[in-house]
Amino acid sequence: MLRRIGILVIALVILVVVNFAIYQKEQLLAQGTTLLLELASRDPRSLIQGDYMILRYKIADEPKLWNVDKNGFLVIERNNKQIAQFKRIHDQAIPLQKNELLLRFRKRKHGIRLGAESFFFQEGHAQYYENARYGELKVGKSGESILVGLRDEKLNPLIAPHN
To answer: What's the Rg (C-alpha) of the chain?
Structure first.
């Protein structure tokens, strides 16, 4: 009996944690600031692999990030087209200006990661995303982000037709 109660409590805790994470992502989608990150050049042979695209963001190649040794935040500014421009690595001693946003990054062996590094799509729909030049993200005040889509060089959303 006690074992069943323990299993039930653990299952309930897991359910609460998962649902809270989903709630946070939904809030980020609904209330986050739209930000476009330019995609870095890619090797066309590895651009499309199965039913996903590997993304690299140009801003992650910023020379000032080459020597960072830990995770942190970028301070970015959006232009009038919502495209991100790197300003600096965040220092808590320097307050953010009204037009600046935080964007979380993670330092990994092979460079800086800015969140979603893969874009998944339905098998057979690769041609609809080949012209991707920007990743569209929603960014919260905390600097957390979520990838919501891809855009072409004219900033048009890339969307495959529904079958």
So the answer is: 19
What is the full per-residue pLDDT of the chain (163 aa) written as tens digits?
788 888 999 999 999 999 988 888 888 778 888 999 999 866 544 445 567 788 889 998 888 888 888 899 999 999 999 999 999 999 989 999 988 999 999 988 777 888 788 888 887 788 888 889 999 999 999 999 999 999 999 999 998 887 6
Q: Are 120 and 45 within one domain?
A: yes
Q: For residue 50, what are the contacts with CB-CB under 8 A and spacing of at least 6?
A: 123
Place of tokens 């935080």: 102
Same domain, 23 and 88: no
Whole-model pTM: value is 0.80
What are φ and ψ of residue 66, in 5° steps?
A: -60, -30
Phi, psi of 12 (to 5 degrees): -65, -45
In a domain, 114, yes or no: yes
CB 54 within 8 A of CB 78: no
C-beta neighbour count of 112 within 10 angstroms: 20
List the domain range (segments joined by +) for residue 18. 1-31
Phi, psi of 129 (to 5 degrees): -120, 0
